[in-house]
Structures
1.
Amino acid sequence: MRNKVFFILGGGGHTAQMILLQEKFPDEKYEKHFIVATGDTLSENRVKELGCYFIHKVDRYKETEDSLFIATIKNILLLRIVRQLLQSKNIVELMNKDILISAGPNTGIFVFIIAKLMGNFCVYVESWSRRKKLSKTGSLLKYFSNLFFVQWEDLRDENKHFIYKGRLL
Amino acid sequence: MIFVTTGSTKQSSYYTELISIIDQLIENTRIKDDVIVQAGNSKYRGGNFKEIFDYTDKIESYINAADIVITADGAGTIFSLLKKRKKIIVVDNKFASRYGAPASDFVGGFKESGLLLWCKNVTDIEKYIFLAKNTVFPEYKSPGNTIYEKIVSSYEDWNS
């Protein structure tokens, strides 16, 4: 039986990195699932080009122009947070000690945390765009990661738990 | 050909200024090259460009045809330009930086390695285009990675 591996996509560079990483996972050994933000048709189309994989959708936690704080207030006030939690829970229910990988978009923060709490193997790959400073998502998800990769040696030196194994591009 | 791409950022006024300055440079024959602009949300139209459009799904073909790419876009675009050995001028995205977007976090390192040019003030763009034309950029060499191997071996240990 194939193991499942879930990739969180998040637009632009985040998606590009996950697309590169997923190529390494052979289809005969891994059943691949992709988690995309609702409305992110670019990422969705890229996955569809790869072939017949499973695609799951979650709402974005925040828009680029919002700070994390503003986004949290908006999500609570508009009850969007409930919807995001439910979407995330439904995805995590498909996992059973499987692998989840994120390259750092805020999409899927809840999926990542819930998946970790439910006993899955959660891998965080800090985006290649982060050379000296972690992203806010990375700063949070380092507490919920089985493995935490950085893609620059400068960042590895910050924390003995950060793993540097080269760069995806 | 010079290709200007602003990506999909919502902060448009900064790029409107960039595009406007380039338009003026063409008007005054300070730039004689063909210039194609992907203007995104800036809504700048007309001008002296060979082409100007919001978005295209053929962006790769424009990039392939370009001698110089002026981009304000993120890391993914910059890496793919490096791999294609394009002459890159990164225009500082002040608006994105305010929201924690990362370009300046790694662009500085590439600039030090001479892999690209970093124009921090759009009013200097003419100088950077001249520099790009007269600079031979080294090849970007990826360090490669064993991220997949590490994930699989750790997962197998964890799962056993």
2.
Amino acid sequence: MSFEKHLNILDYALQTFWRRKLKNVSVIIVFAAVIFLVASFQLTTSSLVKSARKSLARAPEIVVQKMSAGRQESIPLAYNKKMGAIFGIQIIVPRVWGYYFDEINGANYTVIGINPALMPMGRELDIVFEEGGHFPKPGEAALGSGILQSLALEGRQVFSMYRPDLTLKTFRIGGIFDSVTDFLTSDTLITTLEDGRDLFGLDEEKVTDFCVYVRNPNEIETIAKKISTALPDTRVVTRPQIEKTYKMVFSWRSGFASVCILTALTAFIIFAWDKASGLSPEERREIAILKILGWQTADILLMRFWEGLLVSILAFIAGYLGAFIHVVFFSAGFFRPVLVGWSVLIPDLTLVPDVTLSDMLLVLSFSVLPYLAATVIPAWRSSIISPDAAMH
Amino acid sequence: MILIQLQQVTKTYNQGQANEVRALRDVSLEIEANSLVCLKGASGSGKSTLLSIIGCIFPPTSGRAAIDGKQLSRLPDRFLTIHRRNTIGFIFQQFNVLPQLSVLDNITLPLLPLGVSPKKRKERAYVLMERLSLSHRANFPARQISGGEMQRVAIARALINDPPIILADEPTAHLDSKLSHDFMNIISGLKGLGKTIIIASHDPLITRHTAIEKVIDVKDGRIHVS
Amino acid sequence: MIARPTHILAGALFILVLGVITLASLTGIKEDRLAGQTKIIDVVVAGLGLTDLCISTEARYTRHPAVSDPVVPFMDYPGSYEHFPTGSFWAPIIYFE
């Protein structure tokens, strides 16, 4: 088949596409919506994984928690000494962290009590606060913007929280986290180790976990194993595991997302088959006329293929571009309710996904290929219409 | 010179089924090159079927059909199509012009699968449109032109490939007498260009026209040459 | 003079490519802005020992999936208390030894 013949048939397919624009545009809109759904899921989760990978690159190398009957409980400070004997550990930092449930607002806050002097980059922490802010001194707390709003603390200097025995603990506001850290700290309250212990009513000899740092990052797994052996009642989480968690947690191919996507795709393929199968009398006549005028079955099939390809490619472009704009410029606003669930505090997220060819091809194979497959038999059936149908 | 030759051709639709129809029975005829022939018969007589076999639309059920010495009876569909587009120009009943396409696009439809470029298609179409006084309507959608213009579009489309044979199936069925006369004038002119023309019709204006050299009566699937 | 449909298609594709380039540039600007904030992010994560993004604060295992033990979803209520839709949107964490 010559190139000019291909172009001629493509010309005719484009003209036919335009002539039936109402039908074709309706298919494209529905198809693009399905692709928008699939691509939005994919881009949202890919940008969350990317964000986690970049942001959490400095997460603690090892986190040690105590487990009892499968549940986490406070860990004795004495475990510090046991771990200290392991060669290769640079520093062990005790922490107090937990959740504070604000009954009035129904919001959960993350509370961290820590001694920054012991943490990597701890002495630079003042830069993470808005102007005038600093790491809290004793009796002070630094807040994320979500807590500020939730407790309506704008312009106020002091607030209180309940200890477990329902007595009030008062904090002075030492700083507000910079808004660029919202996606990490929106719900977070930072205070000193002692104030954190006081708020949760923890014994002086107890903390909630340890952050462990090693001399040689290549030794993380080895040292984690040694800690597990030395302290068998602990759970040891390494930084590589944290990274892996986010890859798995935001897998768009599982659970709710894949059920939605597969259902929508299946419904659409059935719709596409139905649309492609029905030939109007005018369409039948047109094909019969073309055949009498010398168009072969292969030419008709090629024309129908071009039509199908045009519809699916246009839908793919519209859907994918729409999804990209939705995720990058509207922070996946459509999916936020699904991502955040019933959270009361909703931090700002800036999502910038990596658009890889393999991801795009995956969406293409989920959408365009099934569509072409669904329309190939109807296209073939139309191409074998007998030319004598035009004679009557 | 004999251009079209049919020997004991039969055509049966739905063979072996309850609704079997024998459209043609043992038809043998010869048509000379550069002649103007009329297949005359009422609706259902088999003249459209006979025209379809001559026009390589489908092969006969039995018998032999040849055009310019080439046997067509047992050719597969693909080769029939190729032969048809090189040899036959069709003018249909109701013209079968596609209303949404322009006059120019309708006329050049047969050239698309031949890989003819848009420039050449336009050149060839304009030559015919000039001859048939259609140039001023080239870019009009076919649904906006008159019945007479549509008739001429159908003729131009049949001629675009310069085929040696022109077949017309009831071309004046929906035309008034003036347009029917105009049609026969154009057809007579084509004969003068060396074409072989076969018209299937029961319109007396056609069957009794002076330009018709041979009338073949078709009745109940059989023919009688007069 | 009506243009050939394939030429119109080529023109439309060209405009599309321009649009995609523009979109990529705007995204690049956004990403550059984010890159400029890397230092603050690094300090807050390292300095406070953060392990998770703050996306969903409705439950422990949605707020801190990286450091929540597998029994946490069950601790919220006798029997598994599902935080729909987040709990089913996010895949369960499978730990490999």
3.
Amino acid sequence: MPARVVVLGGGVGGTLAANLLDKELGHDVHVTVVDPTGMHEYQPGYLYVALGKARGHWLSRDERTLLRRGVDLAIERAIRIHPEAQTVQLERGGSLAWDYLVIATGARLVHDAIPGLVEGAHGFYSLRDAERLREVLRTFKGGRIRIGVAGIPYKCPPAPVEFTFMLEEYLRKRGIRGRSQVTLLSPLNRAFTIESASKLIQPIMEERGIELAPFFNVESVDPSAGTVESLEGEKVEYDLLVLVPPHAGQEVVIDSGLSDASGWLPTDKHTLQVGEHERIFALGDATNLPISKSGSTAHFEAPVIASRIASLVHGTAPKTNYGGRVMCFLETGNGKATALRFDYEHPPVPPQPNRAWHMAKWVFNRAYWETVPQGRLPERAPGTMPRKTKPRRLPMRLPRRLEDER
Amino acid sequence: MSQTIAKTLDLRGMACPIPIAKTAIGIRELQPGELLEAYATDPGSVPDFNAWSKTTGNQLVEQTEEDGVFRFLIRKV
């Protein structure tokens, strides 16, 4: 009987893990992906939607079209995980039995955790928010714009900085830069958590007249007064407020008693095993790992989980570990970008922003659907399983810079 | 001024900027003059706590390290 693997969540990590397991184990495994919507969202695109650079239609695909034929898709909401019985309970009744469970449920946005945020702030962390912000920006006549983070941790750490740079450029192109003040509210005393990246970013901010408000951890928003207040006790007025909403773990992992107090899964940083459960693995935004919550993280973690489950199914000792690898693009506006590549041991050394990285990000955005979920890109990512078949050719030629992603 | 610790935060294993954000939340619950103790393992927390206390005015009374764990003692202004 084939080993039953249930993957909760059809985002980048869940989809890739499911496809790699099916590819590697063939008839020895039966993989079922459980996803409440059955739609796969490319979230990095929301940033471009908010600034009118992209429309929503290329950001979403039917999950079924991204999964290998051998992988089942259940469009269901999982409501409870039973680690002892090895089942997952589904909202519409019934349950799924598993021999191995992969939790790739991601993070959820909890806008209402910050008083006044829903009424007073805009955002670009969901398609709806991004489209609403795009309409607001379209008729914006200039004013005080504050950009910040309303809760830590949050997905895609560079996104607020990227948005700030791209917005500044947008205002210049609209001819309202002179009438606008752009301020980045930072949880730290620098623009970005990673020191080396901050050293690169801050001079560009100064050059473009973007202000930095240090140690501003958002506590509340007062929409009627038009102010945002920090935990540190500062109050700032705004005409347009753009905040990353607070994040939390998914209810299914909290309700199942698997998560920590914040709703994140206690996960081994190398094996990606959840707590003491030898048959449960987690990846991506759902974990408590001290590393970026991003699609890239999930992308590099998925092959490790697939390889470890394959070893367990074959009765061999699992040997691949996750080394903390992450790779993020960071747009700096004016058609330039840099890249952050790092792992647990090596902090990033970002190159000076240039056009090549901006192009690479665009190519990656476009090539995503045909490469990442299928496992066609990270052929030699650390910890991937040895290939049995000849690598398939990429559907399009990638610039050499993208080699770094592989 | 009181020398008893009013609150202790275990920030071990957390990556920047979470320790600072948690400290900012923690210190809100204290009365002026009370002490907050925080344990962190992120080496970046040393410059971060120093800069944070300078910016916010909260006094970094003590800073020690033992076996890779940093201990910060902060007095609320």
